[in-house]
Amino acid sequence: MKSPCPILPALLLAIALVSGCARGSVDPAQYQAASCPELDDAIGANSKDITATAVRRGKVANWKPPFWVPGVERGVDAIKGRQTTKIERLQGQGNTLIAERARRC
């Protein structure tokens, strides 16, 4: 059965790839108050978030959209850019966590 709107499947795929599960981690303001096991847990959650985001970015990068869908290449580029920004932000948080753990534990 064909979809009544050809853009709908592409839109749903994009939404599914962009959405992710938020994980609880140690708040940056609470790094000094966190215990060593809490820092370890936060580093692990941060690493999982980075990996999951990189996998989603790779799936988007490898997706070949239909040529007849207008503007889809710009959408794919926008999604990849947002995911790259998120990875860079998560890496910065991870480096902060690792430095704090090295300083205290």
- Compressed to H and E, one letter per element, the order equals HHH
Structural class: mainly alpha
The separation of the N and C termini measures: 59 Å
Question: Please, how many domains?
Answer: 1
Number of distinct beta strands: 0
Describe the structure using short key phrases:
single chain; 105 residues; mainly alpha; 3 helices; elongated
Write the layout of secondary structure elements.
Blueprint: H1 7-18, H2 36-62, H3 72-104
Helix pairs in contact: 2-3
Protein name: Peptidoglycan hydrolase-like protein with peptidoglycan-binding domain
Keywords: Signal
Signal peptide: 1-24
Summarize the structure.
With 105 residues, this protein is mostly helical.
Would you give an account of this structure?
Keywords: Signal. This is Peptidoglycan hydrolase-like protein with peptidoglycan-binding domain. Residues 1-24 form the signal peptide. It comes from Aquamicrobium terrae. With 105 residues, the protein is mostly helical. It has one domain (30-104). The protein is built from three helices and no strands. Helix 2 (36-62) runs antiparallel to helix 3. The N and C termini lie far apart (59 Å).
